[in-house]
């Protein structure tokens, strides 16, 4: 039986990049994955277009990785977003930059990204075994000794890179298998939770589906702690769903909802939507007043047409019991101010999120305190490396998680190969 220098478990973006880096640095590499295809999650990421990375300054990039982003300084010093861009462009994939620095393949096809990675893996002579589920890793007192397969097979080795991903969207193969192997080696797994996940609410207007399907553009969404202090604010788009809220701004806020519920041991959290984030409450009131003064005889409903989305306005009129046919001039200033208050501080009490399985990303994972950031080597067992979402690192959607996967994958692959080849 051939003994490989490096065995990589998991063929997502982190494992594929680790395979490439290890092979490029002279190691013989075996890549095993339990699925029948590699890169299944990558192929559906970024809405099927694959948001390969994000073109931002490193400091800003790290600020968009709220789950232990500072750890990424070291892996980024080895392989960063610009290296990812050069890597793909060097292999003939042109990339384009979209809003917020998001980089996509010009042809908008995630499968092109996956195919390019696979071609490079094959070109470098990496041995690939799909439909090969790993059951566990065995260790001696100090080091890795073998990989044990579900089918009973045993693969002796001194070097393993675990790239098994998190627990989200399990049909792509990410079912949290790597955590017990890490625990067995003495690692700590921090609490796992869903991030980048739609938020749920039991508000009557959600249960009644009053606003279901309504998209709001360029709003600001804020999460409050139980004492009424702002925890986090995100701008962007969102949508009301049949269970709560979703869309980019809601996804970015979701981890703060989860963390606040855990921290304050509470079952509900207050959020607020600001429909006019660039205008103050007073300025908005003055805008309404000016409209009323300009056309006092118009009904309030007709006067405010186009001022905000009609469904929101109807919701507000209903909530405030405003007679929509009333002449604008008869509507009191207090009522106008109340309309402004809802537009600027639309309250929604939320009570959680969808499950970790339905989340885009898994929060928590293998504690980064036990990983050497320059090499991704375990501080617990010799020859053991980790990369990608299995670690306690998570970013917002927008290419940040994929960037983490590529960067930590490359760093792990390179270090593992250098350690083996120079032995
Ligand atoms: C729908 C969707 C959209 C997303 N969009 C974005 C986005 O726009 N931007 C962004 O930054 N991130 C996005 N993400 C997140 C991003 O795709 C992941 O963070 C990334 O794929 C993690 O890479 P990974 O290599 O760590 O793990 P994964 O991609 O999860 O790969 C893990 C691999 O390990 C294999 N494996 C697991 N257990 C075993 C075992 N026991 N034996 C053998 N093999 C095993 C699995 O089969 C799988 O192939 C999205 C995720 C989803 C689900």
From TrEMBL:
Coiled coil: none annotated. Keywords: FAD, Flavoprotein, Oxidoreductase. It comes from the Bacteria. This is NAD(P)/FAD-dependent oxidoreductase. The keyword Flavoprotein applies. Residues 193-361 form the RsdA/BaiN/AoA(So)-like insert domain. It is an enzyme of class 1 (oxidoreductase). Its EC number is 1.14.13.-. InterPro entries: BaiN-like (IPR004792), BaiN-like_dom_sf (IPR023166), FAD/NAD-bd_sf (IPR036188), RsdA/BaiN/AoA(So)-like_dom (IPR055178), RsdA/BaiN/AoA(So)_Rossmann (IPR057661). Residues 5-414 form the RsdA/BaiN/AoA(So)-like Rossmann fold-like domain. NCBIfam families: aminoacetone oxidase family FAD-binding enzyme.
């Amino acid at each position: 039986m051939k003994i490989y220098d490096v065995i990589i478990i998991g063929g997502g973006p982190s494992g594929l990049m680790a395979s490439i880096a290890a092979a490029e640095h002279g190691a013989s590499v075996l890549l095993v994955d339990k699925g029948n295809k590699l890169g299944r999650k990558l192929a559906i990421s970024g809405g099927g277009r694959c948001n390969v990375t994000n073109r931002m300054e490193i400091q800003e990039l790290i600020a968009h990785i709220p789950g232990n982003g500072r750890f990424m300084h070291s892996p980024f010093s080895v392989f960063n977003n610009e290296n990812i861009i050069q890597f793909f462009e060097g292999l003939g994939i042109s990339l384009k930059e979209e809003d917020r620095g998001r980089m996509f393949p010009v042809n908008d096809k995630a499968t092109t990204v996956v195919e390019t990675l696979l071609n490079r893996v094959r070109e470098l002579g990496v041995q690939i075994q799909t439909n090969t589920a790993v059951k566990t890793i065995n260790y001696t007192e100090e080091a890795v000794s073998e990989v044990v397969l579900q089918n009973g097979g045993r693969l002796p080795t001194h070097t393993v890179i675990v790239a098994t991903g998190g627990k989200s969207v399990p049909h792509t193969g990410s079912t949290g298998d790597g955590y017990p192997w890490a625990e067995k080696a003495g690692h700590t797994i921090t609490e796992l939770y869903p991030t980048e996940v739609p938020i749920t609410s039991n508000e009557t207007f959600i249960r009644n589906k009053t606003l279901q399907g309504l998209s709001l553009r360029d709003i600001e969404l804020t999460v409050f702690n139980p004492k009424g202090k702002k925890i986090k604010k995100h701008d962007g788009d969102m949508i009301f769903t049949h269970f709560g809220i979703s869309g980019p701004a809601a996804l970015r806020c979701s981890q703060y909802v989860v963390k606040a519920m855990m921290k304050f041991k509470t079952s509900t959290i207050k959020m607020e939507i600001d429909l006019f984030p660039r205008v103050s409450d007073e300025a908005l009131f003055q805008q309404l007043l000016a409209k009323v003064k300009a056309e006092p005889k118009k009904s309030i409903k007709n006067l405010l047409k186009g001022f905000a989305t009609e469904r929101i306005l109807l919701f507000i009129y209903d909530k405030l019991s405003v007679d929509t046919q009333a002449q604008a001039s008869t509507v009191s200033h207090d009522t106008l101010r109340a309309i402004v208050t809802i537009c600027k501080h639309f309250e929604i009490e939320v009570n959680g999120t969808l499950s970790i399985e339905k989340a885009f990303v898994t929060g928590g994972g293998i504690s980064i305190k036990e990983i050497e950031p320059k090499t991704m080597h375990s501080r617990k067992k010799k020859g053991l490396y980790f990369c990608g979402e299995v670690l306690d690192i998570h970013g917002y959607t927008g290419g940040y998680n994929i960037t983490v996967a590529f960067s930590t994958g490359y760093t792990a692959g390179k270090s593992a190969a250098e350690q083996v080849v120079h032995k």
